[in-house]
């Protein structure tokens, strides 16, 4: 009876762990970014390594969707945390906007969210992995791969953050309708 008890206890613990990993209880809690925090970010160009800009200049006149909305006159900008190997060059064919490197990770939040080992037990992570793999995207094992990202829609001038989507798990997408709705609220400066 003793071995059966230990075996059933181990199976029960494993099932409880998998169930817990798939609830939001174990997800990292982020804090919303403030305009002051984002404006101060120094972003390095991925085309001219010497060019460093203040993030505020990206949305100061026309607003920006940071993560296409050219018909609305809103630029699309990607901010990445690192450039390892040819990752950015491999990303360029899939992205029409400018790409900047945020070495201090301001756009990843005042309190960076990380998906640790429990992410391997989340069904959504596996669904997103399979979806990306079927679409031909390949990852690698280089660099820092645990920080969760997000999408910002930032209004022109003093409009502030109109939408902030914090990635809940790897591959968690923002609703495009929400991005478009927020981008339509941007009032460009004259």
From TrEMBL:
- Location within or outside the cell: Cytoplasm
Identify the gene encoding this protein. FAM213AA
Name one molecular function that GO assigns to this entry: antioxidant activity
Family listed: Belongs to the peroxiredoxin-like PRXL2 family. PRXL2A subfamily.
Native species of this protein?
A: Iconisemion striatum
Query: Which Gene Ontology terms of cellular component type are present?
Result: cytoplasm
- Key words, A-Z: Antioxidant, Cytoplasm, Redox-active center
Annotated InterPro entries: PXL2A/B/C
Q: What is this protein called?
A: Peroxiredoxin-like 2A
Checking Pfam families in the record gives: AhpC-TSA_2
């Amino acid at each position: 009876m003793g071995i059966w008890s230990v075996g059933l206890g181990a199976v029960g613990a494993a099932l409880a762990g998998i169930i817990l990993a798939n609830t939001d209880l174990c997800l990292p809690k982020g804090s919303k970014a403030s305009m002051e925090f984002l404006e101060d970010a120094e972003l390095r160009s991925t085309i001219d390594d010497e060019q460093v800009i203040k993030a505020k200049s990206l949305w100061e006149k026309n607003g920006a969707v940071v993560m296409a909305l050219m018909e609305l006159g809103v630029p699309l900008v990607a901010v990445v945390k690192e450039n390892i190997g040819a990752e950015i060059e491999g990303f360029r064919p899939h992205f029409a906007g400018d790409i900047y490197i945020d070495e201090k990770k301001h756009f990843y939040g005042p309190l960076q969210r990380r998906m640790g080992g429990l992410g391997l037990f989340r069904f959504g992570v596996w669904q997103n992995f399979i979806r990306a793999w079927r679409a031909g995207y390949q990852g690698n094992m280089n660099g820092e791969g645990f920080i969760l990202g997000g999408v910002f829609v930032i209004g022109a001038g003093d409009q502030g953050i109109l939408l902030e989507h914090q990635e809940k798990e790897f591959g968690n997408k923002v609703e495009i309708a929400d991005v478009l709705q927020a981008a339509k609220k941007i009032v460009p400066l004259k």
